[in-house]
Amino acid sequence: MDIVGFVALACGLIIGLGAVGACIGIGIMGGKFIEASARQPELMNALQTKMFLLAGLIDAAFIIGTGIALWFATANPFKG
């Protein structure tokens, strides 16, 4: 396997593991939000705001990883 194959493998791992991590994180966070809002319904609005903020940050981390992987795929410094 040459360098281009390793770069493609690395890009796939970055995107795949980032997606799995983001999905697991948002799933756990959503479950905890449902549990917390069932226990204390009066705090649901404050918790919902924080949950959406954290969901955006988790997705931002995944999107940054995807951007870095696409940068590696298109601007390969080892090719040439």
Determine and state the CATH class.
Mainly Alpha
Mean pLDDT: 90
CATH superfamily: F1F0 ATP synthase subunit C
Structural class: mainly alpha
Major sheet details? none
Shape: elongated
Approximate helicity band: over 70%
**Topology, number of strands:** 0
Number of helices: 2
Low-confidence stretches: none
The CA-CA distance between the termini, in Å, is: 16 Å
Give the DSSP E fraction (strand runs of 2 or more residues). Answer: under 5%
Evaluate the radius of gyration: 18 Å
Second rung of CATH, namely the architecture: Up-down Bundle
Give the count of structural domains: 1
Strand and helix order: HH
User: What's the CATH topology name?
Assistant: F1FO ATP Synthase
Chain-wise SSE layout:
Blueprint: H1 3-39, H2 44-74
Helix pairs in contact: 1-2
Any overview of this molecule?
It is a single chain. This protein is an all-alpha fold and 80 residues long. The chain has helices at 3-39, 44-74. It has a single domain, classed as F1FO ATP Synthase. The chain is elongated.
